[in-house]
TrEMBL record:
<dbReference type="InterPro" id="IPR001498">
    <property type="entry name" value="Impact_N"/>
</dbReference>
<protein>
    <submittedName>
        <fullName>YigZ family protein</fullName>
    </submittedName>
</protein>
<dbReference type="InterPro" id="IPR023582">
    <property type="entry name" value="Impact"/>
</dbReference>
<dbReference type="Pfam" id="PF01205">
    <property type="entry name" value="Impact_N"/>
</dbReference>
<dbReference type="InterPro" id="IPR036956">
    <property type="entry name" value="Impact_N_sf"/>
</dbReference>
<comment type="similarity">
    <text>Belongs to the IMPACT family.</text>
</comment>
<feature type="domain" description="Impact N-terminal">
    <location>
        <begin position="23"/>
        <end position="128"/>
    </location>
</feature>
<dbReference type="InterPro" id="IPR020568">
    <property type="entry name" value="Ribosomal_Su5_D2-typ_SF"/>
</dbReference>
Length: 204
């Protein structure tokens, strides 16, 4: 994945099922947006239920931008003949926060390790080509703390700079949490220094 500290590429939504055939074996490909590793098992279990006659449900996933986590699973196919070719397509398309699963139904003719690598790679590639790939902007949270008398000042600042307030606690001692694109954080922090009655904290 190409390093970009401000944005990343992923898929918008689960893809439609695609089918790739090789020597009577059927390979069904799927892609899913992914935010947590815990989401993987229920998806794979559902695919096993959907394709109850399948011999293998192989997959690969990657999560993260600054700290990358990934896994490739051959599900009984020869070592590195399925999961890694699938994962290679995640890398080739420079994606993250994505799961690709390929379901194989054996057609009676062995493909050999080379044939398997090619088939799983091609199925993953077609599945991604049928997915809506999007760019997502990385954001940082900033907490503003201030007394109620500063409310109008803070709200004008938020409106002027078109900032996204994701949480607010507006009592005598007020707090507002802003979600700001990483490429704008330093500029916003610099502007906030002029407001001495507003305390600013940034997320780690």
């Amino acid at each position: 994945m190409t390093k970009n500290k401000y944005s990343y590429k992923t898929i918008r939504s689960p893809s439609k099922e695609i089918l790739f055939k090789e020597k009577k074996s059927k390979f069904y490909g799927y892609t899913f947006p992914l935010n947590h590793e815990d989401e993987v098992k229920p998806i794979i279990d559902e695919l096993r239920t959907l394709h109850s006659s399948a011999n293998h449900v192989c997959y690969a996933w990657q999560i993260g931008v600054e700290a990358i986590h990934y896994r490739a699973n051959d599900d009984g196919e020869p070592n590195n003949s399925a999961g890694m070719p699938i994962y290679g397509q995640i890398q080739s398309f420079e994606l993250t926060n994505v799961l690709i699963a390929v379901v194989r139904i054996f057609g009676g003719t062995k493909l050999g390790v080379g044939g398997l690598i090619s088939a799983y790679k091609e199925t993953a590639k077609i599945a991604l080509e049928n997915s809506k790939i999007i760019n997502k902007v990385l954001k940082t949270q900033i907490k503003l703390s201030f007394e109620y008398e500063e409310m109008d000042t803070v709200m004008r600042f938020i409106k002027k700079h078109q900032l996204d307030a994701i949480s607010q606690n507006l009592h005598l001692n007020c707090e507002i949490i802003l979600s700001i694109p990483k490429n704008k954080v330093q500029n916003i922090l610099g502007l906030l220094k002029a407001y001495h009655k507003i305390s600013v904290e940034t997320s780690a």
